[in-house]
Design goal:
The structure holds two protein chains of two kinds. By secondary structure, chain A is α+β, with helices and mostly antiparallel strands. Chain A has two domains: 101 residues, no CATH class; 210 residues, MetI-like fold (Orthogonal Bundle), CATH 1.10.3720.10. Helices cover 55% and strands 14% of the residues of chain A. Chain A is built from 13 helices and five strands. In chain A, the strands form two sheets. Chain A has a three-stranded antiparallel beta sheet with strand order 1-2-3, with no helix packed on it. A two-stranded antiparallel sheet of chain A has the order 4-5. In chain A, α2 packs across α13, α3 packs across α13 and α8 crosses α10. The model of chain A has no long low-confidence stretch (mean pLDDT 83). By secondary structure, chain B is mainly α. Chain B has two domains: 93 residues, no CATH class; 224 residues, MetI-like (MetI-like fold, Orthogonal Bundle), CATH 1.10.3720.10. Helices cover 77% and strands 1% of the residues of chain B. Chain B has a two-stranded antiparallel ribbon. In chain B, α6 packs across α13, α9 packs across α12 and α14 packs antiparallel against α15. The chains are: A alpha+beta, B mainly alpha. At the A-B interface, α6, α7, α10, α12 and α13 of A face α1, α7, α8, α13 and α14 of B.
Chain lengths: 384, 331
């Protein structure tokens, strides 16, 4: 017994917290909520943040369209049909005058029978800011005529030219954003609700509910979306008011789009409902609705939001395509698709290429939503 | 295999039956039918309506019967190849569509082929040379391809062709072959004109396909069996083809399930914009004028196209992958 080694005792003072003590930075990280961590993740994805910002600007502009647009939606400048875009200049003959446009001179070419516009470099038209211009009803609520920018008195400001009725394209694109951008949001909300309810029921109850929902999803997904959308929107009666048609279109978009989300919800629920915490909740007497909504859904809400973001572009595109084909929204409701109807005639487009400009916001929006959705998807699981 | 085949065909038939019911409901949704709006239109123009002809058509196509009976008549006709009667054109639907059915198949087939041929090498390259300049460049192009809706791309290309080359690219064949029976010369002409629409329709699908193949292959590239094979001295090229690529190929082929509906959708709208001789343009017209036998036939046709395409891809998968063949095909 005596040759046994002495028991080792450290002379250091004992600190029971030594291992558990965290640096402030670690503490911040470990104590952060899930959403906070997702935000940190997302912030690293530069392109997603920029896209999010672009979208934010666009959606804010939708709220104050009337103020931002230099002209009213249907203001006709009958003297300026198919006028080309006007550039904004700062210097006139080497002298600083502030932002202004040169006047447009119109002549009728008797050979081609076409209006031709020439820039009149003597006619300086300084822009006015916070000015009163075309009167409008703000969101149809009250009368106002304040604009961020207006052309000079008797001057013109056609940043993107005018269309066949002499309406300012830039203003019309701004107004079109109001419809085009919200169609996607409302549509995705409806499709989200449908997807969660139907996919949730299938995933939670399993059995025959599941097999029926599965079959329906399979069939819907095997159909080409666009012809289906076209057929459904052709069924909207023409005598409905534009606003009802608008909601009709969003409902149609959602009706065809939900299977993707429902499938995601279902597969997640199938996995999660076997977890102990779900069993515990059931044993404590929670009803299915509560188990799904309070215990299971929050587990993959972030994933759902990411995939929803990724399917907004397809809705915006669908609305654009439908309106473009004349099966969706109809004038006087104005969306980007409705504006593009003017670009259907290839001869007109060759002569007046600015008729195609409503494409640009469509592409920017779709790209931005794709990047943002990509970033969100990476950030959706911050614990990885 | 036979067992699997039989089951797969049964599923396909049931699917088509349900789709036919859905299509019938959708085309019946608009209020009234073509004949009613036809009559009001004639009356508003002050023209006399040939009551007898209307009544004859109504009876001929059973429009006075209850809906379920109309549905059965319609489906019965479809099965026998009678697609109904187009009121708008005053011709049987089969005559109106004619060559368009075949041309639609041709356009879609070549679009899918194009997507696979382009996406495969690029996807493999992007995965093997991950984060190289080539990878970044191709990813960017892919993103742009995904974001530019194909009907807008069609418009842009048509504008550019018109503007700079003074040519119109909006047909599938040289004008002299229109309304001509199929011949060798016509076929050549069609193949020559096919390139532009196929590229336009294929762009978005190609971009998506590249990204998915790249992701699949990246999942495999760093697994242990690859390391083992490399440690045993297999050359890089042989290693890639023999092991990870084969694993990544299955999802690549199975993806046709996502791809086909997208391609068919795209081909419909691109055809409408470019005025191609496929089923797209008659579909819009038929939908606008409630010519429901015509729109129903086109809708059924595009659905049939995707369903049969998926059936073929499932068969290809079963041949490639014994697990599916033997287990009876749970995808």
């Amino acid at each position: 017994m005596s040759d046994r080694m002495d028991h080792f005792v450290s002379t250091e003072p004992f600190d029971p917290q030594a291992i558990e003590a965290l640096s402030p930075e670690q503490e911040r990280y470990y104590m952060a909520s899930q959403w906070k961590m997702m935000w940190w993740r997302l912030r690293r994805h530069k392109l997603a943040v920029i896209s999010g910002f672009v979208l934010l600007v666009m959606y804010v502009s939708v709220v104050i369209t009337e103020f931002l647009a230099p002209y009213e939606l249907s203001t006709r400048n009958v003297d300026y049909l198919f006028a080309p875009p006007q550039g904004i200049h700062l210097f006139h003959e080497g002298r600083f005058v502030g932002p202004f446009t040169y006047g447009l001179e119109q002549t009728l070419n008797m050979e081609t029978l076409q209006r031709e516009y020439a820039v009149d470099e003597t006619n300086v038209q300084p822009l006015r800011f916070f000015c009163s211009g075309d009167p409008y009803r703000f969101w149809g609520l009250f009368e106002a005529d304040l604009h961020l920018v207006c052309p000079a008195e008797d001057g013109t400001l056609f940043l993107l030219g005018t269309d066949r009725l002499g309406r300012d394209m830039w203003s019309r694109i701004l107004y079109g954003a109001r419809v085009s951008l919200t169609v996607g949001l409302i549509g995705i909300t409806l499709s989200f609700i449908l997807g969660i309810v139907i996919g949730g029921a299938a995933g939670y109850f399993g059995g025959w509910v599941d097999s029926i929902v599965q079959r329906v999803i399979e069939i819907l997904r095997s159909l080409p979306e666009l012809p289906l959308w076209m057929a459904l929107s052709a069924a909207l009666p023409a005598r409905w008011s534009p606003i009802v048609i608008y909601f009709g279109i969003t409902i149609i978009l959602a009706l065809v789009d939900w299977p993707g989300l429902a499938r995601a919800v279902r597969s997640k629920l199938l996995a999660l409902r076997e977890e102990d915490f779900a069993t515990a909740a059931t044993l404590m007497g929670a009803r299915p609705r509560r188990v799904i909504a309070r215990h299971l859904l929050p587990n993959f809400m972030s994933h759902l939001i990411a995939s929803a973001t990724l399917s907004i572009p397809s809705m915006i595109l669908a609305e654009t395509a439908l309106s473009f084909l004349g099966l969706g929204l109809r004038p006087p409701v104005t969306s980007w698709g409705v504006l593009l109807i003017e670009a259907q005639n290839i001869e007109a487009v060759t002569l007046f290429p600015w008729l195609m400009t409503p494409m640009v916001p469509v592409i920017i929006t779709v790209l931005a939503f794709n990047f943002l959705g990509d970033g969100l998807r990476d950030a959706a699981d911050p614990y990885k | 295999m036979l067992n699997y085949l039989a089951r797969r065909i049964l599923v396909m038939i049931v699917t088509l039956a349900i789709i036919s019911l859905m299509v019938f409901v959708i085309i019946q949704l608009p209020e009234g039918d073509f004949l009613t709006s036809y009559i009001t239109e004639l009356q508003s123009q002050g023209e006399a309506v040939d009551k007898q002809k209307i009544e004859y058509l109504r009876a001929q196509y059973g429009l006075d019967q209850p809906l379920w009976q109309q549905y059965l008549t319609w489906v019965g006709g479809l099965v026998q190849g009678d697609l109904g009667y187009s009121f708008e054109y005053d011709l049987p639907v089969t005559v109106v569509l004619g060559d368009r059915l075949l041309l639609t198949i041709v356009v879609n087939f070549f679009s899918v082929l194009f997507i696979y041929i382009i996406a495969f090498p690029i996807g493999v390259y992007s995965a093997v040379r991950q984060y190289s300049w080539g990878d970044y460049g191709l990813t960017l192009v892919g993103f742009l391809g995904l974001a530019t809706p194909n009907f807008l791309l069609a418009l842009i290309l048509m504008y550019l062709a018109n503007r700079y080359f003074g040519t119109s690219i909006g047909t599938l064949m040289a004008p002299e072959y229109l309304d001509q029976p199929m011949s060798f010369g016509k076929m050549i002409s069609i193949l020559e004109h096919l390139a532009v629409p196929v590229i336009i329709i294929g762009t978005a699908g190609t971009a998506g396909m590249i990204r998915r193949l790249r992701a699949n292959l990246l999942d495999e590239l760093f697994k242990q069996y690859v390391v083992t094979a490399r440690a045993k001295g297999l050359s890089e090229g042989k290693l890639l083809v023999k092991y990870p690529l084969r694993m990544a190929l299955n999802p690549f082929i199975a993806d046709i399930g996502n791809l086909l509906p997208q391609v068919v959708s795209g081909s419909v709208i691109v055809s409408i914009v470019m005025g191609l001789e496929t089923v797209g343009p008659p579909l819009v017209k038929a939908l606008q004028s409630q010519d429901f036998f015509l729109s129903g036939a086109v809708l059924m046709f595009v659905a049939l196209l995707t369903v049969i395409g998926m059936f073929i891809s499932d068969l290809a998968l079963a041949v490639l992958d014994p697990r599916i063949r033997l287990q009876g095909g749970a995808r």
